[in-house]
Amino acid sequence: MGEAANSVIAIYPGSFDPFTNGHLDLIQRSTHLFDKLVVSVLQNEEKKSLFSVEERLEMIRDSLPGSSHIEIDSFDGLLVDYATSKNASVILRGIRAISDYEYELQMALMNRRLQPNIETVFLMAREAYSFISSRQVKEVVGLGGNVTGLVPPAVEAKLKRKFQGA
Ligand code: PNS
After folding, report:
1. Probe ligand 1: pick from 16, 17, 43, 79, max atoms within 8 Å of CB?
2. Which CA distances in Å does 99 have to 37, 76, 105, 163?
């Protein structure tokens, strides 16, 4: 779809270290809500990550069907500045459990203070994925456990390579 003046562009930001089936499900469920979705990986040198930004972008590209509706990108600096540069009016975030709420509320309120024209929209994680976190996925694979079905195949392969040299 073209970027008409009234089209709604949403940013789906995150660390995606790594991308999980929970992230994928949220993207799939949001596609009919926005004219365009920009999935964007935070470039943050301070946050210790397992995968480089380039590796994370590659895993997201390999996990999503090509679509003119979805852009895959990375960003640094303030999220609201990046969203403005992309003409986005929405920040999309997923919420799994009540425990996510406080962090998400703080972020949404800070972002609204910084840029009142951008709304944060929350989608509830699907029940089947509400327990998945990137942190746990890394821990389980690091300890030799199986994460099949919790992450896309391209991510599972990269995790195995990273931890087991497979
Ligand atoms: O997947 P995550 O780690 O929960 O995503 C956090 C993210 C990337 C959304 C957040 O850290 C972020 O937006 N960082 C950019 C810096 C920023 O804008 N900070 C002010 C908002 S609190």
Report:
1. 79
2. 26, 26, 11, 29
